[in-house]
């Protein structure tokens, strides 16, 4: 199995987290987004939308979209509950992550770290991110994990960009972040953006 991967991406980090926790052997293929690695014809063959992560199976099949990759890897393991309702809730949190956590917390992290946005642009996105944190805080007030009684891919997915939120995180969310960090096999290899991610320093789809 092979993961096309960008170390500073939360979408890639969540996949690395699950692979590590599952103890799955895989080849990590670094994609230097801002050196233009995703802009090549070769990369378009790997992922036509030119994004990371991409999981490539030993038979050559590929899966894109971080949360789809999580679902594929988690099937048949403790990371994806069996029940129909619980699976519905996992899907709900994966969609919430893409809609509000990635855009509302991951987006501003990127814009602030790389000097790409005006204050107004950041503020608009952060309003979404703060709203997401409030929803999470209320949900986690009476439970340890997002779905059911154990950690699932819903937690790993939402964890990635929440763990580097560029705003203060409320108490129940902070306690939940610590619970995720304490899970067996947890490895924090999520890195800050490199120098070539600065506006004007490299080229990418952004
Ligand atoms: N919805 C996608 C988003 C993936 C995405 O935005 N990937 C970014 C890094 S976080 C990327 O690879 N961008 C490529 C580029 O800018 O050239 C997912 O969840 O996998």
Automatic annotation (TrEMBL):
<dbReference type="InterPro" id="IPR036249">
    <property type="entry name" value="Thioredoxin-like_sf"/>
</dbReference>
<dbReference type="InterPro" id="IPR036282">
    <property type="entry name" value="Glutathione-S-Trfase_C_sf"/>
</dbReference>
<dbReference type="InterPro" id="IPR004046">
    <property type="entry name" value="GST_C"/>
</dbReference>
<comment type="similarity">
    <text>Belongs to the GST superfamily.</text>
</comment>
<dbReference type="InterPro" id="IPR040079">
    <property type="entry name" value="Glutathione_S-Trfase"/>
</dbReference>
<dbReference type="Pfam" id="PF02798">
    <property type="entry name" value="GST_N"/>
</dbReference>
<feature type="domain" description="GST N-terminal">
    <location>
        <begin position="1"/>
        <end position="81"/>
    </location>
</feature>
<dbReference type="Pfam" id="PF00043">
    <property type="entry name" value="GST_C"/>
</dbReference>
<dbReference type="InterPro" id="IPR004045">
    <property type="entry name" value="Glutathione_S-Trfase_N"/>
</dbReference>
<protein>
    <submittedName>
        <fullName>Glutathione S-transferase family protein</fullName>
    </submittedName>
</protein>
